[in-house]
Amino acid sequence: MHDFFLNLTTWITSHPNLAGFTIFITSFAESLAFVGLIMPGAAMMLTAGALIATGALSFWPTMGWAVCGAVLADGLSFWIGHRFKDHIRSFSLFARYPEVLTRGEEFFNRHGGKSVFFGRFVGPVRPVIPIVAGMMGMGHTRFTVYNILSALGWAPAYLLPGMAFGASLALAGEVAERLAILLVLLMLLGWLVFSVFRRGVLFLFTHWPVWEKRLINRINKRPVLQRWLGGFFDKDSSLIRPLILLIIIFVAASWLFLGITEDVMTGDPLVRSSKSLYHLLQGFRTPWGDLIMVGMTMLGDAAVTVPLVLAALFWLLLKKDRYSALFLTVTATVGFLLVTGVKQMTKIPRPVDMYGGAVHWAFPSSHATMSLVIFGFLAMLCSREMTVKKRWLPFGLALFLILGIGYSRLYLGAHWLSDVVGGFSLGTAWLILMTVAFLHGKRACRSQGLFRFSLILFILAAAVHWSSGFTMNMLRYQQQHPTTRISTSQWLEQGWQQLPAWRIDLGGEKEQMLNLQYAGRLADLQVRLEQTGWIKPLALTPATSLHWLMKNPTIRDLPILPQVNDGRNEKLLLIHTLPESKATFMALRFWPADVVLDGSTPLWVGTLSTMNIRSYLNLIHLPRTESTRNPVPLLPALSGMETHLQAVRTNHVLLIEDNSNRLP
Description:
The chain is an alpha+beta fold and 664 residues long. The protein has 4 domains: 2-167, no CATH class; 180-226; 259-476, Vanadium-containing Chloroperoxidase, domain 1 (Up-down Bundle), CATH 1.20.144; 484-657, no CATH class. The chain is built from 23 helices and 12 strands. Strands 1, 4, 7, 8, 9, 10, 11 and 12 form an 8-stranded mixed beta sheet that branches. A hairpin with a 3-residue loop joins strand 9 (601-616) and strand 10. Helix 2 (16-31) runs parallel beside helix 5 and helix 13 (240-266) runs antiparallel to helix 20.
């Protein structure tokens, strides 16, 4: 067996593209109608998982090939069923084995649309459920959702056991057994969550009519509410449920906006979390990503939204729909005044200065607010001219633009997370308020053609804005790395006290004390420490993560989870065992401080902590940080470097300066 995998690994390494295509074909054939009954796809997928563990294949590309093959095969089977309906029964293959199709129909009738998801994991009906779903007239969108979700669950279900086997042939039995136990526990937990959710939904739908009747009775007993809301609760009106939902969303959005405003003004953990996310996203930036995100964020610029609103107003007035034109004008104008006023009151600075004038300040994001207000209100207006089945088009397009623009503001570093979420909540509250007021008028739709006209003008405005301002915006949003430059003497005297004292996680909370500061190259420090017994831990990969399931592992056997400081993973992680316990060890981590000494020497902040191998249910063994460790024991390993031990209350901060390799 070992020789077989060795030869197969060599072949895969020499033909990586062909290997991916082979996995795609295997997954496709294993999921195709009837072909999957005779195709040994499961064995081949388990083999692929074993090859991932050996490093011959990468997990995510393999997962992608497998998912794509499964989705396309089920999609083709669904199309066949949808195209030929009951004529399929006359096909020779189906006529010869009618019981297979019958079992699939019974399974589908019993579970409905969910059978597309569950059927992928049930061998006898797996390859026929998609074709049965097509025969039964299941909706395309609903089938696609279940198809993709089931493929995302099916691929790792076959790959992970194979990875457990291939991680180490010598330990395959042990790891596979423990992995199986873990998977069973996860399945039981998933079943429990699903059952609770299902019962909760049934309870809600059962009691909703009673709650609805009580609400109507209370409104009818109050003249003021009856005068304002009575029209919504007419027995022949279908607006009662949407209205209640809108009211709930309005209250939630208003509460969220006020809460975020309080947080940004008082510097709550949300602010620190926003800074962490900012640094995290800046680390993910790529040239291609910048091109896409700049193009997306420009769709929310005034150069696009203002012409769009003016074009919609022109069309509404042309159709003599003055009621809708008035509401669109008020919604857009007051929305802009609201976001501008809040900016001037809060005066929260942006991550990086890039604007002037009324939009100089960060909170709330005007792009997030106005895109939600304008696109959302226009989507509501456009949906009134469409049939029920097509109303998702304007709302789907609006949602795509709103979320895309909001994410682009975070990706490009134009806003903090609190700015975008605050903008969305403010925009949602204002949009809901204007929508309820608009619908209360019960005016007939007289703006037929608004969606097409607005879409054409939006595309034209975007094209003009892209062609004239893309280069300028690429320069505006280019990634910036602000650094502070000080002298070494300033750092040693007082500058070290100005650096962050605590590690900030992604939640904005303070974690370990940053008790180390190092000036120099990390590679030089690593070489020096490795000479005194420090080692790099096992790299964390999908394959090595299975080592957490080993019995009685040592620290050399286990990968260590990275730690985030202000949105960035550590640039150096070293560990050292302790004589008192095999399960306890020291961990040394360093992160960038964004400070440069004497023009060229980088400064790093770090922590020396004690970690321990914790056991969970005697099944998973995971290294976890216990506490910050006094840096004094590190001094003997730093002989030859200048060290300065500074007292901070009951703790110490160790300043390390490498003069031997000072950058030129």
